[in-house]
Amino acid sequence: MQSQQRIISLLPSATEIVAALGKRSELVGRSHECDFPPDVVKLPICCEPKFSVDGTSREIDSQVKSTLADFGSIYRLLDDVIERLQPTILITQSQCEVCAVSVADVQRAISERLVCRPEVVAVEPACLDDIWSDIGRIGAAIGAESEAESLVVQLQSRLQGITSARPEGQLPRRVACIEWIDPLMAAGNWVPELIALAGGECLFGQAGQHSPWMEWDELVANQPDVVLVMPCGFDIARTADEMTSLELQPGWHSLRAVCDGEVYLLDGHQYFNRPGPRLVESAEIVAEILHPNCFDFGHAGTGFVRWQDGV
Questions:
Q1: Are 300 and 289 contacting, i.e. CB atoms less than 8 angstroms apart?
Q2: Which residues of the chain have pLDDT under 70?
Q3: pTM for this structure?
Q4: In the chain, how many H helices and how many E strands?
Q5: Of all residues in the chain, what percent are helix, strand and coil, respectively (each to 5)?
Q6: Measured between alpha carbons, how far is 201 from 224 in angstroms, rounded to an integer?
């Protein structure tokens, strides 16, 4: 490893991990979505989507599928920026073609177009254990092995603190987690684990499995106690703009969660969609929602809001 590393992260969660391991000063480039810690927005952007991401969830879904069919990838690496930055380490992922630049795209660029030859570190998180392993993998690559071990212990301890403080003797509330609104998709991967840690039962999506598409009738038939809406890449305001799509669905107003005022909009972009250190905050958000008399981590209004029809 060179004395002065030059790290490019093409994944928001990896950017957060590098910073949490004390190597923020060695980050020289980022993806178009990397925005935490806040000062990383000053770094040069090294990739971009091949289409506009400003549309509705239905329009974005259509463009993603069309772009994948036409090009096999929905992201463009900015080769000239990467060459100028001369990275020694480039971090990306191999889990999802839609989430971020894939390791295949990076390796193709290095072999065919780029002169620089950075070490490529690829993460592939599907569950919490994978995330702990990815923190260790990144830590080993950037010379922060002990920091990675300490960070994992700290994060696991905080999660255990939530589990230990949950009210005893209560049946878990049945939770529907919506990761995409139109078409409808449930949250999978690590989200069901977060729900369970916070004391809930995730009705759709399996821990360690990709997020599944679902039919509207499935949601209505299962009558969740709580609905958490956390579209991938959307903040709360943008999610609120999309809620009409759900409100117009047959049976929405008769859902138990809707009638009881137990529908919440969550900041999926900053929390639940990022497999990094702030998944602990994601679990805190769920704990506040499921057990408001027991937990108050201060996330109300920023990490989540209660939804009321037409608001």
A1: no
A2: 1-3, 70, 72, 95-100, 309-311
A3: 0.93
A4: 11, 12
A5: 45, 15, 40
A6: 10
Tokens describing residue 281: 């905050």
Cα separations in angstroms, 269 against 12, 172, 197, 276 = 10, 26, 21, 12
The pLDDT value recorded for residue 310 is: 46
Beta bridge partners, 200, equal 173
Q: How far apart are CA 199 and CA 186, in angstroms?
A: 18
For residue 236, CA distances in Å to 50, 207, 300 come to 24, 24, 11
Residue whose tokens read 């830590």: 139
The pLDDT tens digits for 64-87 are: 888 777 676 788 899 999 999 999
The pLDDT of residue 75 is 87
For 50, the token pair is 């091949």
DSSP structural state of residue 99: T
Any bridge partners for residue 222, and if so which? none
222 phi/psi in degrees, rounded to 5 = -85, -15
H helix runs in the chain, sequence order? 12-20, 57-71, 79-85, 103-112, 128-141, 145-165, 191-197, 216-222, 236-247, 256-259, 279-290
pLDDT tens digit string along 29-55?
999 999 999 999 999 999 998 877 888
Closest CA relative to residue 7, chosen from 168, 155, 121, 154: 121
15, 41 in Cβ contact below 8 A?
no
Between CA 255 and CA 217 the distance in angstroms is 11
